[in-house]
What does this fold into?
Amino acid sequence: MLVVLANDLPPAVRGRMKLWFVEVKPNVFVSGLKDAVANKVVDYLFTHCTVDSGLTVFKSSRNPPGYEMRTLGMTKRALVELNGLQLVIEKNNK
It folds into this structure.
């Protein structure tokens, strides 16, 4: 499974994403692509998107913990690694 969250995708990239993914809400894409195709899609995204896109990509993996996360640009949440486990930090607005 591949889940892509974006702040703002270039129109050409967003159009291609709609070929492979279901857009469950604006700039939130979900797909059940096979690993080889998912890797190509992630490479495409990181090649054709700018840092303004604010990408967060969640990809299923066969290795523990069962997923991988990657980001590009400024996102609303930060990724950290703790003892080899990738986690998402939610910012406190207080």
About this structure: Residues 4 and 57 are 5 Å apart (CA to CA).
